[in-house]
């Protein structure tokens, strides 16, 4: 009865997130948010987390989209090789980074530049982006680009009208998923990150589990702020994309 219907899963996810947000809000006061805004450790944690999340997202989307476009007409071995990292959890990928990157001082684990964390995320998220976009590439009709060539359009306009308008939404969706995951993640930064500054997932977990119970509300406040940030980004994404979607559906793309 529910086959092909996304509403049950959507309602379940919304209910879980909403309940968690309600609990977090009930555990915090305005003073907790003011205390976080003046906490230099928290601000540094946010900065390094955004650096890791944005770097991992941009690189994963660029490389994954490029591989999907390159191998869209290929069958067999490319997809099989890129599927291997998907069977390994992020925790396992972090242990591989410890085993194989520990001898490299610049990119090894527990380095301030966080390269080992970014490389671990790339190992996992590039295949995700690849398989997310591969069906889209395979459904593209290359006759649009040929028509643009006949009409004398520039290479950029041919790409936009032939591929860009169809790839824009899936690429942004994949980028949002990767960004949200890497910003909140705990296990990879916990294994590979430095003791200071900690990524936001590790910092929040430490606040909640440390002996000082008076700081637990700050952990709930951080979860509220991060959830609000992602909701705001999703709202902006929807508001920006909807007009373009309507123009494309009506054939008015420039």
Could you explain how this protein is built, in words?
It is found in: Cell inner membrane. This is Binding-protein-dependent transport systems inner membrane component. The chain crosses the membrane at residues 7-28, 48-70, 82-102, 114-134, 165-186, 219-237. One of its GO terms (biological process) is transmembrane transport. This protein has 254 residues and is mainly α. The protein is built from 11 helices and no strands. The chain has a single domain (43-242), classed as MetI-like fold. The chain has helices at residues 7-26, 30-37, 40-70, 77-83, 90-101, 115-139, 143-150, 155-184, 187-192, 200-209, 216-249. The protein starts with 6 loop residues before the first helix and ends in a 5-residue tail after the last helix. The model has no long low-confidence stretch (mean pLDDT 83).
Short description:
The chain is mainly α and 254 residues long.
Looking at this protein, list some descriptive labels.
single chain; mainly alpha; 254 residues; MetI-like fold
Our Rg estimate from Cα atoms comes to 21 Å
CATH C-level class is Mainly Alpha
Query: Which residue ranges are poorly predicted, with pLDDT under 50 across at least 5 consecutive positions?
Result: none
Helix run count = 11
Structural class: mainly alpha
Order of secondary-structure elements: HHHHHHHHHHH
User: What is the typical, i.e. mean, pLDDT?
Assistant: 83
CATH architecture label: Orthogonal Bundle
What overall geometry do the principal axes of the alpha carbons give? globular
State the major sheet. Answer: none
Tell me the helix content: over 70%
Membrane topology: Multi-pass membrane protein
Protein name: Binding-protein-dependent transport systems inner membrane component
Domain ABC transmembrane type-1: 46-237
Transmembrane segments: 7-28, 48-70, 82-102, 114-134, 165-186, 219-237
């Amino acid at each position: 009865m529910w086959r092909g219907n996304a509403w049950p899963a959507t309602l379940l996810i919304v209910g879980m997130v909403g309940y968690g947000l309600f609990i977090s809000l009930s555990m915090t006061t305005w003073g907790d948010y003011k205390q976080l805004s003046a906490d230099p450790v928290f601000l540094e944690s946010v900065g390094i987390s955004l650096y890791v999340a944005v770097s991992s997202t941009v690189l994963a989307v660029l490389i994954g989209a490029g591989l999907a476009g390159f191998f869209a007409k290929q069958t067999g071995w490319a997809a099989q090789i890129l599927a291997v990292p998907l069977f390994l959890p992020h925790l396992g990928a972090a242990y591989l980074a410890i085993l194989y990157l520990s001898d490299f001082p610049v990119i090894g684990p527990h380095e301030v530049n966080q390269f080992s964390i970014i490389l671990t995320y790339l190992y996992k998220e590039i295949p995700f982006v690849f398989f997310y976009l591969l069906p889209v590439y395979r459904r593209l009709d290359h006759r649009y680009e040929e028509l643009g060539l006949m009409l004398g359009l520039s290479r950029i306009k041919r790409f936009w009208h032939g591929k860009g308008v169809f790839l824009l939404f899936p690429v942004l969706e994949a980028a949002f998923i990767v960004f949200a995951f890497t910003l909140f993640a705990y296990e990879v930064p916990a294994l590979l990150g430095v003791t200071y500054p900690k990524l936001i997932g590790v910092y929040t977990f430490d606040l909640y589990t440390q002996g000082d119970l008076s700081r637990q509300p700050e952990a709930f406040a951080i979860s509220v702020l991060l959830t609000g940030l992602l909701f705001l980004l999703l709202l902006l994404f929807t508001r920006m994309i909807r007009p373009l979607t309507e123009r494309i559906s009506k054939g008015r793309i420039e």
